[in-house]
Amino acid sequence: MDIKGKLLITGVSGLLGNNLAYYLKDKYEVLGLYNSHPVDIEGIYTEKCELSYGDNIKRIISDYSPQIIIHCASLADIDGCEEDRDATKKINVLATNDMVEGVMNKDVKLIYISTDAVYSGIEGNFSEDDNNIHPQNYYGATKYDGELEILKKENSLILRTNLFGWNIQDKKSLGEWILGELKAKRRINGFNDAYFSSIYTMELARVIHISIMRNLTGVYNCGALDSCSKYEFCLKIADCFGLDKTLITPISISDFNFKVKRGKNLTLNVDKLQKALDYRLPTIDHSIEAFYRDYKCGLAEEIKKDQGGGQGKSVNIPYGRHWIGVDDIQSVVKVLRSERITQGPKVEEFEHALAEYCGAKFAVAVNSGTSALHIACVASTVEEGDEVITSPITFVASANCAVYCGAKPVFGDIDPKTFNIEPKEIQEKITEQTKAVIPVHFAGQSCDLESIQGIVKRREEEFNSRIFIIEDASHALGSIYKNKRIGSSIYSDMTAMSFHPVKHITTAEGGVIFTNDEGLHEKLKIARSHGITSDPGEFVFRDLAFQPLADSYEPLVNPWYYEQVDLGYNYRITDIQCALGISQLKKLEKFRKRRREIVNRYNEAFGSIESIQVPFESRDCDSNFHLYVLLIDFEKIGIPRAQFMNELRERGLQTQVHYIPVHTQPYFQNRFGTKWGDCPNAEEYYQKCLSIPLFPAMTESDVERIINEITQLVRGR
Ligand SMILES: Cc1ncc(COP(=O)(O)O)c(C=O)c1O
Prior knowledge:
By secondary structure, this protein is of the alpha/beta class.
């Protein structure tokens, strides 16, 4: 098999980043990182990463283990950099420092794309000599500081450049801008006294590739072999593309009122690089010809069509979203290339990892949270004539699982603080018909399990019956109740979870049931797979199952033999999904931590607003915060909830209502006679609740945007 080296490119949505990805994607396995502009280039992995935040870049380096990093990401708008010095320093210097720390003591080749703006821009023909370093603006200064960070890592390569090319995004490089204006027959000005040595991105990509192969280290200028003024550059482009040169007017850079100072002569002396690589760099004419050739052969169009895509394609922020990294994708691809894509080793591996994480003896992985709940009811022998108590503030599956078994769902009202079922409601609603209680850990906040277990035990004794407790922990992977992880099933018979994409980890669709009871474990496995067993110890028809052998031998099982011992289902999960789950589970603690940070910021921002109530946190529970539900007094703020949600949607924010009380759904009203008024706390909660976006891939700016938009709306602006 062709094993390619792993290359990480930062700034893959930028001009050089995406052109490099195109150029190098057949030569390396490429992971490209972007911040706000999603990119989807066939043949490479892309991932959203806010470089300047926390240990994002270190995490990606450790997850992906690249052999080479090309660090293209930077804030490069000269005026913008001056205006927002903090952000510029964060990206251009501090994020570079994080990257260097992430690769220290690792065998990683670091290539840093620097700029001609580190030079004074007076004399021109700059060599790499330190005496020439006199950045004229904050952009140049921070890029030079970035270089100093990079030099802390041995064998790094720094390339100071100026480039033009075909951009993936709407924003245009100089070459594209000239073309656009001239094609539209608009007049343009070109500085006849500002010089540079701009190189076409694909030519630069070639030089970078050669530099990697030769393991070049040090600091080099990497531009065109010669130079020209920006006015001449406009003429050359017009010439090459057959456009009207008379539209171009020469002017002096001094006539242009730039807010921020720029170097006048930034021409580069590229002798050092040519010598080190024994390679002749292209002249500006050659670069423009290559730029034209790529246009003619459709590369420019191909690059542009890849705009957008990736995770988080739109600028809209959903209320919840999965976070799939390149390591997850690779785990899945590995299984796709293997012998077994279902019923293979990954299922058990996932089950073991989950059981170990949650602290339960057994885990049975299935194809959804709903099937997990269903077979938990089956294993509890829930059947016609039985009652099953659950919460009305949940997804319908928590009640449907009882109905699948022919039982009647009974709804116990919620505690208005935690939004979870009140133990006293369970106490009141348990009857001799009750076969199971399904407490739902809503939004990750755990139920009062100790009280629920106490009540159920007392009622079991009173009725001399068996009442199962099945936790619906679809929201609660990673939550901790009384110092034990939810899933440990210490206070229950079984715990069901879901791995739907909005949940803490995902397998696309998927679920699991935890138990500490061996008998239940066996029943769950059989129910998951058609009611069939292949365990010789379980076989009923032993004469059909075993080969008749001489007495001295152990009986041999007939190799084809299996038995259906009960009615079961095909609720199996695939190895492809489990590979994803295993990989995701490794990141759960990071996801949890990130959610917590966002929650802290939300609490701080919304906690003091009068018409808003932030989520309550019980002292017994360290919630994983699956959802962040605000209670908003829509009457008081004078905006109906639907309008509030629509206005937020127009501002690019998706919110959701979790949930419409299940007992008010027409199916339950019609079939079981439930009605509005049955659970007043749940119904009152429903009038005010609103889940706002919360998922670990949210960036700081996403969080601040959400806070601003919601606060403005609540305050009537
Ligand atoms: C509380 C609750 N229970 C059960 C389920 C069902 O899980 P799944 O969608 O994986 O079938 C969900 C899913 O949203 C849920 O939120």
